[in-house]
Task: structure prediction
Amino acid sequence: MKTEIITAPISIEERETHFYYEGSDVVCDTTMPTVWRKCQKQGWVVESQTMFDGNVVGMILRAPKRALSIRNANTLKREMTDEQKAAAANVQRRVAPVSGLIHKGRRYFRAFIFNPLKTFETAIPKK
Result:
C-alpha cells in the first residue's frame, strides 16, 4: 500500500469521491471517510492512502466491477388499499404477542403469551 503525505488539510467543501472503471475493476478515489469505510467493510482493497498530520484524509480503493451497482433513484412507494391495510392489521393482531403485568406476591412479572399464526385462515380469507 502506497502512502502519500500532504502538507495542507482538506476542508469539508473540498471532499469528493470519484468512481471509475479500469479494465475489469472499479476504482474509488475518495476523500470522504464515510465512503472509504463503507468500501472497506464491503471488502474493497486499499491501494493508497493520503495522510495529513498523522490522520488519513483520502484513499484509493479497488474492487471487481460487480461491486458497484447503480440503482433507480426514483423508487415507487407501495400503495395499499384500505382493505389491504385492514387485512395486514388483522394478521399483525393474530401474530403479535400479548404482554401485561402479572402480580404474584410482592413482585410484578412481565407476561409473554404468544398467539400462533393460523396460517390457513390468514392465507385464504373467508368470504
Remarks:
- The first strand starts at residue 2 and ends at 5.
- The CA atoms of residues 87 and 122 lie 9 Å apart.
- The mean pLDDT is 82.
- The chain has three helices and seven strands.
